[in-house]
Each structure stands twice: as C-alpha cells, then as structure tokens.
What does this fold into?
Amino acid sequence: MKTIGLIPQRPPFVMVDDMEIISPEHCRTTLLIKEDNLLCDETIFGESGVLEHIAQSAAAFIGDKSLREEGRIWPGYIGEIKNFNFLDSAKTGDVLTTEIRITTIFGDVTAIEAHTSVSSGADNYRPVASCGMKLFVDRSHA
Amino acid sequence: MLNLTPYKLKKTTDELKFDVIIDFNNPVFAGHFPGNPILPGVYIIEMAKECAELHFAKKFIIRHIKSCRFYYTITPARSANYVMRAQFSESDNGIKAKVDLSQDDAVAMAITMTVSEK
It folds into this structure.
C-alpha cells in the first residue's frame, strides 16, 4: 500500500513510498531514492536519510493502525534512537527495503527495531543499517 | 553537504561550542509538517556530525549511535537560536562524540556516537 496519507509528512520531506503489512507487529517498507531527495548529498543517501526513512516507515505502520482504530493519524516525532549501526550508504536509483518490528506500545510511545538494506534485483539484499527507535505520537493536537 | 539544510552552524571562541540558527523559511518545513513547522530530528544529528567535521577539519560518516534522545520539538514559537556543545575522544573505531543541543540551558537533544573519516 502507498504510505502517503498514513504519515503526517508531505513533500518535500517524504522518505517512504510503500508498505506491506506482514503481521500486527511486522511490516516491510520501501523507498526509491531520487535525485531531489533533500537528504541526498549529491548522489549519496547517508545516515540521516536512512534514519528518517526508518522513522517514517515506523510512522506509516503506526498511522495505518491509528487510522483504523481512531479514524485519523497524528503528528509523531523520534523520541530516542539506540544502537544505530551504519554499514554502507545508498545512492540515487537504489531501492531501500526496511523491516520494522514493533517491540512495545506504551500509550503514546512505540518502540521498534529496524533493519534496512538496499535491494538490487530478485533476492539480492545488501545491509545498510539497523537500530532501535522510540517514536512519540502527539495526540495533543486537535 | 546536504542540499538546502534548514540550519547554520557557527564556530564560537570556545572550540567545543557552536551557535546554531534555524531558518524556518526553508522548504523542508512545508512538508514537516503542513501548518506545524518542526525541525526534523535527523537534521540535529547532521549538525552534531558537522560539529565534529568543523572541529577536526575532516569529513566524517556516523558509524554508530549508542544513544540519541530528543527532549522537545524545535519550533518557531520556541526559538530560532540554539547552542551545540561537543566533547570528543579517540576510540578504537574512530572518534567518539558526545554532543548536545540546548536553548537557555534546556537540552533539546543529546547524542553519543562514533564517527569515522569518510
């Protein structure tokens, strides 16, 4: 499914394209890295781009759930990043694939684990980064 | 350097302290979020890396973030002016950096990370 509409972000700061829900705790997202991506440094998509893609992937998963359960999505922010390991940059034209696993939901805080790789054809994946992240959903907005 | 970053870092007379100015007119805020401009946390992480790059006069990649915490959102209602402070030490895998961003002594973000030369 397309993730625009599941996340509060809009162009020019959208860093996720599609999501496949595998189970209530597991989804997979993709992003095609384009030249005009604001977090691209010339043709290189580095640490900050990957972190934002991970955060927006989690936001899409959370957004899909809140749309179904509450009829709307909320703004959300990164609260915490733990144990981020960055192995390799990606570049324009690459497709990033990210696995998001929800570890806990406690009120407005959702904790996830993420693994991101670059896919280059059929079953070929090159690991890019992994981390734990906590996202805060801001329900204080009208 | 990233295109169109919505911030500027300036060195101060203290080599471990940097002044930060946020430009809330930057195009990124149209999308983050519509009607509710909030500085994306990843740009604060980029700023932290840039402090290390300014200090050591080298280009770095962030290899590892042990922890990064955000304490409040950076919005025009709060301020456009912040201070970034850094501490650096050598580690087996590169340079360990502890950096925080604050405004009037209220810490907005604190990060412990390891960077290595590009």
Q: What stands out?
A: The beta strands of chain A are 18-23, 26-32, 40-41, 44-45, 76-86, 90-91, 95-106, 109-119, 125-137. The radius of gyration of chain A is 14 Å. The CA atoms of residues 39 and 48 of chain A lie 7 Å apart. Chain A touches chain B through 32 residues (CB under 8 Å).
